[in-house]
Amino acid sequence: MTSELTPARRRPAYDAASLLDVAVAVFNERGYDGTSMEDLARAAGITKSSFYHHVEGKESLLAAACDRALGALFEVRDEPASREGRTVDRFAHVLLRTTETLLTELPYVTLLLRVRGNTPVEQAALEQRRGFDRYTADLLSQAIADGDLRADLDAALATRLTFGMVTSIAEWFRPTGETPPAAVARATVDLIMRGLRP
Amino acid sequence: MTSELTPARRRPAYDAASLLDVAVAVFNERGYDGTSMEDLARAAGITKSSFYHHVEGKESLLAAACDRALGALFEVRDEPASREGRTVDRFAHVLLRTTETLLTELPYVTLLLRVRGNTPVEQAALEQRRGFDRYTADLLSQAIADGDLRADLDAALATRLTFGMVTSIAEWFRPTGETPPAAVARATVDLIMRGLRP
To answer: What ipTM was estimated for this complex?
Structure first.
């Protein structure tokens, strides 16, 4: 056995993290259900068996991708500005940071938003998403009760419309486009907070 | 030949319009690319050859569905309140009626929103959608120039965010749900117009 062929000396073209990037791009392009391990290996330019060397299978890639997106969202909840101060300010902070997270983790959040719940992995991701939705709806309700947001708002409907605007950004935003992410996030929060305040 | 078997006496279980309803529901469920004529015939409970008796093929169904959604949107543009008066009021009217159209033509508009442009029919539908987007962006720009909407708005971005909120309604709204369509449309226009006005 020559030293070039020992596993310790071979430098892999991909590690698990970069294969995840490739897989998420292909899932977003073709849909998760329509993607095979064959498709993923082809997109990465490696053989199917090399691909299986790095990852267990399609469902473990989806789980890792959803975990990354959900982890980023739940980190927002733990930030000091999300936990301290008037609820309306906490809500505005969570809204800003959620929008920024969507923009910085765009392919991962896009995939999460398309999950429809056909497998246990998808159902678990959906359940966590619903938990985050309840958290933001509770903040909005409390800010109405505090008199800091319009009294005529239906909190559940206003939450859906608010985060509907945020998630719709994933449909058109491109990091290489004209509008910088910070401008998009700022415009979104401005428009919504002006719309929600008395 | 007995009279029961003459074509004129047989009452078809479906006509072209009701088969279109079935097809649109299946396209929205499985995706257009993932749907075969076999799937459509099975969903309608008729044979594939009966299905072909009514419609030319999958692409003609997609074309008819997109035409219905686009036709309803372009009718909004021709309404008197979309053509007369201050531009800001015309914009608010178009926004309200676009939202109402999404709610009343929900399966058709949902399908239109998912079109990605892989075939000539899809490309034509996308081109018409872009025409409608330009029309609404022009109204918004003009209302800013008139001083009736915030001077600090980026018209293109504000248009995307506005209609992003509207189109996101298709992701969660169910006609059988708790919130009536009129309340959804009113809340959407209220939130956005308050957010856009100086």
So the answer is: 0.89
